[in-house]
Amino acid sequence: MMAAPTGRKPTYVWGVGLLWISVFTCILFFTGFTALNILHRQQAFQQKIVQADIILVRLNNQLGYGGFIHNFKNAVLRPDEKDRYLDAFGQNALAIKALIEQTEQHFPDLTNEIKNLGETLNEYTENAEFLRQTELRQPLDIDPIVRVNDDFAVQALLNLLQSNRDQMTETLSQMESRKIVLSVGAAISFISAITATAGLLIYARNRSRIFRAAVEENRRTSEMIEDVGGAIFKLGSDGEVEVTNRKGRAMFGALIERQSVPLVDRMLETFPEIALDDPLLRAFLGRKVDSEISLYTFPDQSQRYLRIFSAPLSNQNQGGAVIEITDVTQNMVAEKLEDQNRNILVLGQVARSVVHDVRNVNATLRFTLERLKGQDLGGSTPALITNALSALSVSDKLAKRLLDFATAGRDEVTNFEASDVLTMLRSLSDGIAQDQILIDVRKAPAGARLTGSPNAVLAALINLVVNARNALVAAGQDGQITVHLDSEELHPSIPGWVFRVTDTGPGFPQEIIAGSRSSAPTRSAEGYGLGLSIVHSVAVDMGGYVQLSNRAGRGAEVSIHLPAHHSAEPLMQTAQTLHASARVLLVDDSMMVTRLLERQFAKIGIATHQSHSAKAALLSLQTHQYDLVITDYDLGEEQSGKDIAAATHELQPDVPVIVFTKTPEWATEAFAHLNVEIFGKGNQTETLISRAKSLLARSPEPADAAFSTKNQ
Question: Which CATH code fits 333-408?
Answer without folding.
Answer: 1.10.287
